[in-house]
Amino acid sequence: MPRIFVKNSRRGLHLKREHKNTEDEQVQKKISCAARLAAKHENDSALHLIAGASNMEDCDKVAEKLINKNVNVNAQNRQGFTPLHIAIQADNKAIFELLLKQDYLNVNLKTIEEHTPLYYALLKYESGDTGDDSYAACLMKSDIQTNPLYSEYCNSLMQILILNGAENAAIFLAVEVANLNHVNSEGETALHIACSKNFSKLVLHLAKLGANCNLLTNESRQSPLHYAVESNSEDCIKVFIEFNEYIEGSDTSEPRVPCNFNLRDINGDTAISLALNKGYNHLVPVLIEGKADVNIRNGKDFTLLHQAILNEDSKTAIFLLNHGVDINAKTTDYETPLQLAIHCHLANVVDALCTRGVDMSAPDRLGNCALWAALDSDQEEIASILTLVEHRANINIRDSENKTPLHIAIENQHDEIITLLLSVPEIDLSLRDKFGLSPFAAALTFRNNKAAQAILDKLPSAAEQVSGLADEF
């Protein structure tokens, strides 16, 4: 039995040795083949080719042989790719792990497009490679630069990921980044770009990690909130509101700065003013929820109410009226919201203003009040005049020539307005303009017999106020 055992053992050893020799020969053949291909390519090294051959049997053994022969693990091809870059892109985990074990491996080398291996690992992460043994997670355990910069526009890796739509990868990376407030050549932070892409999950994540929500860009002087409005990103605006509420309810001793909803850009516009300018009226109530100042003025010195009225947006104007806006705020031309609403033919806004007790006697820079604005309108605003009268506007008010609204209506031959004014009990038919004409005398002067008769019907003694003209009538 011992002789049989020894004999069999020697045979087994011989077979093992033979198998090993055959295996070594196969590995050597693969190395030679890779070397020949590399020579033909004049671009990739043998290690590059092995790294890209994820389906090759024993590729890790071939690579190890190459490395033991002092093949440069950091060699870059014409595109700047190292074997590590290629192993990640080819999903060659065996070569990837082998390379990470090498003492002289440089994990931060860039391609000619300035991408490090981490960039490609994070793209894998975005595509679903999110486990603890993912390419990105493994690289984080090495001497990796987590947020390298790109020379063009000075964007960081995180900003590049966001621009490329990789929100989940950016969320993963954010925890590892030391400076979340890096600005590119335009003055944009990762928060700015995330808002422009409507990446609300990332925005909240960055804010909670300490990113500054109030940094302004270089030229336009816009905050991330401005960018959220520009991109019509309601979700990002709501996230800033959520973040502010999170700060208020936080017990942490670390000082946190909330998102300021009233920062102005280069044009003097806050986020809410910008929303109105862009026609994103649905964002206005959301911004007000975030404590945007409804009475703040833009660069043209218009309040939000002025803007809404000038945009002929009755819905937004009335919404603002329901949220504490100053109803008597004047423009630089001393026009009130009431006068603007009359000029813009917004009868429902005129009514809403009057219902809320707007000052109907406030004069503009020419000394004219809202009633004059209605009378001076190209299409004399019957509805507005009626509303003003119904809300007890002073119909005996006088202009610079001492004319009353009735004088003007008579001169303009506007029978409907004349009838409306004469129906008001408080009307004073004895008032004279600077030419000494009463409303009755004005009616005779402008040959408005219908108006003259209506005045006499209301005040028979009106004829005694004039001489000559009354006899002619």
Automatic annotation (TrEMBL):
Gene3D superfamilies: Ankyrin repeat-containing domain. Keywords: ANK repeat, Repeat. This is Uncharacterized protein. ANK repeats lie at residues 42-78, 79-101, 186-218, 267-299, 300-332, 401-423. InterPro entries: Ankyrin-SOCS_Box, Ankyrin_rpt, Ankyrin_rpt-contain_sf. One of its GO terms (biological process) is positive regulation of transcription by RNA polymerase II. The keyword Hydrolase does not apply. It holds the Pfam family Ank_2. It comes from the Eukaryota. One of its GO terms (cellular component) is nucleus. The keyword Kinase does not apply. One of its GO terms (molecular function) is transcription cis-regulatory region binding. The lineage of its organism: Eukaryota, Metazoa, Ecdysozoa, Arthropoda, Hexapoda.
